[in-house]
Predict the structure.
Amino acid sequence: MSDPTPLSVIAFPDGLPGFETCHRFVLVHPPGLGPFTIVQHADGPLPAFVTIDPLDVHGGYRTELTDADRARLGAAGETPLLWLAMVSTRDDGKPTVNLRAPLVINPATMTGLQVISAESPYSLAHPLRAA
Amino acid sequence: MLVFTRKRGEAIVIGDGIEVTVLRVGRAGVRLGVAAAPHVPVHRAEVYAAIRAANAEAAADAQSLPALLARLRDDG
């Protein structure tokens, strides 16, 4: 245990919009959670996000990364990446998924970012389940 | 807020080498070019704000996660 940084901590150098000072997150996938993965701030109880593989929500889902985003992740063209879309649970309605601005993580570098693109065919609030 | 008057082709420099150039001025809008190091994120403000709002809505406290997940399961 000479390394003070556990390997399971993922660095988000730019933080997330609204949470710009949160630079370290861990993925939690307890048993019985179904398709969901928790993305939890490593340095405090807030924020934690319920996320899901966008392909589980929208078949054929595909978002292209810019060269700048690839460079931030240290990802070459063929590097397998982990995509996670945030689930929003509303008190007054059906849960929705942010397919427009997914989290993308490069497991090889343990670096992640949230995709912020001006052009996207996907919604910030896609229904989690078809009506 | 600092306010500048710039003509087409003129620029301002922000901090350590971020340069914003006025490329075109039209009736409907102003076209800007931003030159910055690759690690400097540059976004349209309204896009960033919309994602910030979505994140705030999706963010949960770790303590509230079990109830939240139970609700997601029940909805299914």
User: Anything to note?
Assistant: Chain A touches chain B through 38 residues (CB under 8 Å). The first strand of chain A starts at residue 9 and ends at 11. Chain A is about 10% helix and 30% strand.
